[in-house]
Amino acid sequence: MARLVFLGRLADLAGGAEREVAPGPLAGVIADMEPELAQALAGPRVRLALNGALVAGDGLVVKAGDELAFLPPVSGG
User: Fold this and answer.
1) How far apart are CA 30 and CA 52, in angstroms?
2) How far apart are CA 44 and CA 73, in angstroms?
3) H or E segment at 47?
4) Which of 25, 32, 61, 77 lies 20 to 30 Å (CA to CA) from residue 69?
5) How many CA within 13 A on the CB side of residue 66?
6) Which helix (H) or strand (E) holds 76?
7) What DSSP designation does 70 have?
């Protein structure tokens, strides 16, 4: 299994901060999620961190034992 970590408002949409999923292409992992969450995760401003390193989502394959964090846009003031 792989672990997904959701931060900020993405955790609210996911119903929790973490989720275990079967390994596979990121596009398929996201497609299996609730439509509202899948749409938010696919947003252009959401960053990805795979095992602690920022990565691009294009062609990404999540492997067993991986941790993939979804980082929402940050607002500041």
Assistant:
1) 19
2) 10
3) strand 47-50
4) 77
5) 19
6) none
7) E
The residue among 7, 4, 3 whose CA lies nearest residue 73 is: 7
Which one-letter amino acid corresponds to residue 35?
P
Q: How far is CA 66 from CA 12, 25, 45, 75, 77, in A?
A: 22, 12, 22, 28, 34
Rounded Cα–Cα distance for residues 68 and 77 (Å) = 28
Residue 75 has pLDDT above 60, yes or no: no
Q: Which pLDDT belongs to residue 76? A: 55
* Alpha helix ranges (H) inside the chain: 9-14, 26-31, 35-41
Class of residue 6 by CB neighbours under 10 A (exposed 0-12, middle 13-18, buried 19+)? buried
Look at residue 73 in the predicted model and tell me its pLDDT: 85
Determine the Cα–Cα distance for residues 38 and 46; give it in Å rounded to an integer: 12
Q: Cβ of 41: how many Cβ atoms within 10 Å?
A: 21
